[in-house]
Each structure stands twice: as structure tokens, then as C-alpha cells.
């Protein structure tokens, strides 16, 4: 009875959130030109390769709510206290720091960039589930000044309102997928601080170039704004003397033919940050499964491959480290050089790392 009441409460809160989302966001999305992934008649984006609709989601939510601890690590994950001086110091290669899930702090050129910032206690719009394994290695208030906030899509585990509102108080510029500007402006961010990109569109800020890349996913903040905003990966490029650095940020994307196009067009990648986690047969076309992550890493042929979208929150019914226990050996078998830093560790393309995730 206790669990039933809790679940009914969850559904009730979801309904209220959905209602609010409808009135707040749906009427304000503009109509974009027709393309191979946007229909102006329905005013929604779509995938060239349709997704299979998720099934049995209610049973998954039940397990993630009442048996959540089964998907958490048994003890705190190892971390490193962030060394901001090391991250920001002039260096021959760009430097990075991982906060778990898809949140990366990047120091590229003289720019500090953060991807899909997620620092809260829950990655769910209904915060009785999907709780963070442990506190982040640093809070947003402790971060160095952020030049660019890079946002892939509008799902709650990639677009957290509390984190965005804190960054809004800084001088950060927001580079986002097309349509996400509607949400950010509703939260109080001036349009002049937002650059929206359609797939294969680029923008350059202070020597760093950002290109939105195709993905096979979806977007929403509630039931009534489904696919009103686009979802993207990003190519991040920077020229350092005669050399050019390229980094691939996956965002969220299921397997698809678009990866062939990306591999043929983007050139040599230094580090590929590829989604690895939160997959399930109930939603097979939303995220990569471990073997698909390894295959994509091999296809892109980066100097290093780093799995992301794991290590912070349980958003699926696998153990916290199952994704990397599977994908990392698979990627190595395909000749890919893997990169698995600790949370909070400063690293670059040459950093040697260990398989710390194999230990409970």
C-alpha cells in the first residue's frame, strides 16, 4: 500500500508538470523551414530512421523508484579534488574534467566550456527517483568562469533548470540545438546570449568552432512539447598553431546511418566522448547499447574514446558500471584507445587511465 501511494503520487506530480509544461512552452515554438528532419505542418522534428516506441515503461519506472539502490554502486566512486589551476593553465593540448553523466568541463584555447550541466540530486522531473550516486566533485558556484554552455537537447538529464539558472547569472553564452532557445528565454536568458544550431550548422566563438551534428533521439520537457526542439551531437574544433584539434560530443543518440555521414565528414577526431549507458530493450532506439558504443568508437577512429552518460545517475535497469564493463573491452578489441578518467581528474588526449570501474 505504501508503494502504491508513492507511485500514485509520482503519476500525479507528472501530470501536473505536464500540464504546466503545456501552457508554458507549446505556444511559443516558432515554425522552422521544412527539412529532412523537420515538418512545418506538425511543427515537430523527426528522425529519418523512426524510433520504435518505448514499451513497458511503467514497470521500469516502478523498479527504478522502489529498487533504485540496486542500480547504485555499493560504495562511493573514487574521485579527485578538482585542480582548477591545472585545468586552466596554458598547455599544448586542450584539457578536460568529467563530473559524471554527460557533464564535461573543457578548456579549449582560452575558452572554458561546459556540456549539458547536471549537478542536482535527481535527473528526473519527478525527484523521487534517478538520484545522484554521490555529491558532485564540485558545485557550479565553485567552477571557473564559463564562456560557453553547450546543450545537446531538452531532456531533464541534459537540461537542468537549476544549473542553467545559476549559469545564467554569469557571462556565459549558450550554444544549443535548434528550438532550445525557447526554453532558455522562458527561464530568463536574453536571446542575444543564445546561439541555436540546426544539424551541420556552425558557429565560432573566440577561436572555437561548434558544429551541430545529426543524432537519432527525441526531445521533450513534458507530454505536449514532444520533438518541438531538436537534438544534436557536436563537433568542437580549435586551431592551435598549425594543428587543429577536434572533439566529438555525442549528446544522446541511438544507432543510425547518420554515424556514417559523421565519420565521413568530420575528419580526424582527438577525443570522442560517446554515450554509454541508460539503454534498455524497452526503449531500444533511444540510446546506444555497449556493443554499439564500441562500434561507433571504431567507426570514428578517434585518438582516444571516452565513454560518457554513466557514472552519476541510474536512468535504466542496469548496474552502474555494466556499460563500461562491456563497451571498454569491446572497443579495445576493435583497436580503439580508451580513456576512463576519475571524476574530477584533469586529463587530456595523452592521459593514461586505469579501469577503476571494475571494482565495486
Task: Describe the protein in words.
The relative contact order is 0.16. This protein has 360 residues and is α/β, with parallel strands linked by helices. Helix 7 (290-300) links the parallel strand 13 (271-275) and strand 14. The strands form three sheets. It has a six-stranded mixed β-sheet, with helices on one face. Helix 7 packs parallel to helix 8. 24% of the residues lie in helices and 18% in strands.
Q: Overall mean pLDDT score?
A: 93
Structural class of the helix and strand makeup? Answer: alpha/beta
Biggest sheet strand line-up: 3-4-5-6-7-8
Low-confidence stretches: 21-25
Strand content: 15-25%
Number of strands: 14
Helix count, DSSP H or I runs of 4 or more residues: 8
Termini Cα gap: 34 Å
Which terms summarize this structure?
single chain, 360 residues, alpha/beta, six-stranded mixed beta sheet, 8 helices, 24% helix
Summarize the structure.
The longest helix is centred in the first third of the chain and has 24 residues. The protein contains 8 helices and 14 strands.
Q: Topology of this protein?
A:
Elements: H1 2-25, E1 38-39, E2 44-45, H2 57-66, H3 84-88, E3 95-98, E4 104-108, E5 111-115, E6 148-151, H4 161-168, E7 173-177, H5 180-186, E8 194-197, E9 202-205, E10 208-213, E11 233-240, E12 243-249, H6 258-265, E13 271-275, H7 290-300, E14 304-308, H8 322-333
Parallel strand pairs: 5-6, 6-7, 7-8, 12-13, 13-14
Antiparallel strand pairs: 1-2, 3-4, 4-5, 9-10, 10-11, 11-12
Helix pairs in contact: 7-8
Amino acid at each position: 500500500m505504501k508503494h502504491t501511494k508513492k507511485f500514485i503520487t509520482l503519476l500525479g506530480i507528472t501530470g501536473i508538470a505536464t500540464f504546466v509544461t503545456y501552457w508554458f512552452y507549446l505556444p511559443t515554438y516558432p515554425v522552422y523551414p521544412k527539412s529532412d528532419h523537420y515538418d512545418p505542418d506538425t511543427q515537430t522534428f523527426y528522425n529519418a530512421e523512426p524510433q520504435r516506441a518505448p514499451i513497458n515503461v511503467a514497470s521500469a519506472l516502478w523498479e527504478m523508484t522502489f529498487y533504485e539502490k540496486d542500480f547504485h554502486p555499493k560504495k562511493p566512486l573514487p574521485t579527485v579534488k578538482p585542480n582548477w589551476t591545472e585545468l586552466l593553465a596554458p598547455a599544448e593540448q586542450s584539457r578536460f574534467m568529467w563530473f559524471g553523466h554527460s557533464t564535461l568541463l573543457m578548456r579549449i584555447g582560452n575558452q572554458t566550456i561546459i556540456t549539458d550541466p547536471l549537478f542536482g540530486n535527481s535527473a528526473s522531473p519527478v525527484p523521487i527517483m534517478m538520484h545522484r550516486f554521490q555529491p558532485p566533485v564540485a558545485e557550479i558556484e565553485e567552477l571557473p568562469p564559463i564562456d560557453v554552455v553547450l546543450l545537446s537537447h531538452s531532456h531533464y538529464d541534459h537540461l537542468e533548470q537549476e544549473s542553467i539558472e545559476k549559469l545564467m547569472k554569469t557571462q556565459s553564452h549558450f550554444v544549443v540545438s535548434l528550438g532550445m532557445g525557447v526554453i532558455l528565454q522562458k527561464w530568463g536568458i536574453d536571446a542575444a546570449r543564445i546561439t541555436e544550431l540546426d544539424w551541420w550548422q556552425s558557429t565560432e566563438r573566440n577561436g572555437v568552432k561548434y558544429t551541430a551534428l545529426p543524432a537519432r533521439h527525441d526531445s521533450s520537457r513534458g507530454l505536449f512539447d514532444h520533438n518541438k526542439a531538436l537534438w544534436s551531437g557536436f563537433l568542437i574544433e580549435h586551431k592551435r598553431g598549425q594543428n587543429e584539434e577536434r572533439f566529438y560530443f555525442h549528446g544522446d543518440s541511438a544507432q543510425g546511418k547518420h554515424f556514417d555521414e559523421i565519420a565521413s565528414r568530420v575528419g580526424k577526431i582527438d577525443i570522442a566522448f560517446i554515450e554509454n549507458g541508460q539503454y534498455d530493450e524497452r526503449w531500444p532506439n533511444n540510446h546506444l547499447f555497449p556493443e554499439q558504443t564500441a562500434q561507433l568508437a571504431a567507426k570514428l577512429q578517434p585518438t582516444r574514446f571516452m565513454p560518457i552518460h554513466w557514472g552519476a545517475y541510474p536512468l535504466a535497469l542496469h548496474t552502474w558500471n555494466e556499460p563500461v564493463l562491456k563497451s571498454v573491452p569491446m572497443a579495445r578489441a576493435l583497436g580503439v584507445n580508451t580513456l576512463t578518467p576519475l571524476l574530477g581528474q584533469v586529463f587530456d588526449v595523452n592521459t593514461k587511465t586505469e579501469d577503476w570501474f571494475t571494482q565495486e
